[in-house]
Structure to design on (302 residues):
DNA sequence: ACATCTCGCAACAACAAAAGTTTCGAAATC
DNA sequence: GATTTCGAAACTTTTGTTGTTGCGAGATGT
């Protein structure tokens, strides 16, 4: 089952957007992601509707963040992408009246519910600013290395 | 994203198999699941390879459990189905050298890892006998109701 | 022996969901 | 008014899953 990597990609893009001047066009973002601008617009539409980014037409237009990274959590972006289900595995409801199925689905369902709550909690606890800080630390780590090419 | 319901269905089938006499043919199971016998064989092949069921050819043949339900956990069946990933959402690895991507994927990855460990723990803690017990309780509950059609 | 039932396997077809593409229009800037 | 850029709809391509067909092998019953 193929995995939905839109969340990962959008987080990546948003942090980069925070570090560049001016707007990023759909074309530029598409090249970053190895995809095409229409897909970018489709994906970012949710973020725009939820107020995390703004899009501007015409020369010099493109996408800009509308709030600081510290005010956006990973969960926010997940929800803005349409709150897709986290799980690739789920319960079957072939015979809702079958008590065996009910017992099975109750056990599976409560496990998935607990896992989902854990994920939601963790996603809500991490802001994009936290991720940017982590990036800074990784950068510092590398430039501090004696045999680093960048020094 | 469509969900993989094989685990749910196989658990359902195995508990029913424990409650019937003799072998269940792929055809019978397929009818239970509203699918066809080849798909059943394909799915059950993993359970056979891992030793939870045995298949017999010819007249009176079919599928039988090879051990008590108390010795099979939900996790066992999940693994027997090829240990498919639990998650529909995952990380993108477009630019492994990009430190932003690393920071993003580290945060996402650790959240998914924690959720996966939680699921594995819960799945390992439930045997099919537990599910069958739950079924029995649901049955007792219903037959005890004063206005139950079955009384 | 022979017919019948059943699984095993491989190849092929059908289907669904996601991603990619094309095309047009609208708004903003140069 | 020419160009840039997003917005949206329609269409095509791709990919993974599921369903189907066909043949062979083994087991049972007559």
């Amino acid at each position: 089952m193929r995995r939905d990597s839109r969340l990962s990609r959008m987080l990546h893009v948003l942090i980069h957007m925070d570090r560049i001047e001016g707007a990023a066009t759909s074309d530029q973002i598409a090249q970053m992601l190895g995809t095409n601008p229409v897909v970018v617009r489709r994906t970012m539409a949710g973020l725009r509707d939820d107020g995390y980014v703004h899009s501007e037409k015409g020369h010099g237009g493109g996408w800009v963040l509308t709030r600081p990274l510290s005010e956006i959590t990973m969960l926010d972006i997940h929800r803005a992408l349409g709150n897709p289900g986290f799980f690739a595995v789920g319960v079957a409801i072939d015979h809702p009246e079958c008590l065996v199925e009910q017992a099975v689905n109750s056990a599976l369902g409560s496990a998935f519910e607990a896992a989902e709550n854990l994920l939601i909690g963790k996603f809500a606890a991490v802001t994009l600013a936290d991720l940017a800080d982590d990036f800074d630390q990784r950068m510092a780590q590398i430039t501090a290395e004696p045999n680093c090419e960048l020094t």
Notes: The mean pLDDT of chain A is 93.
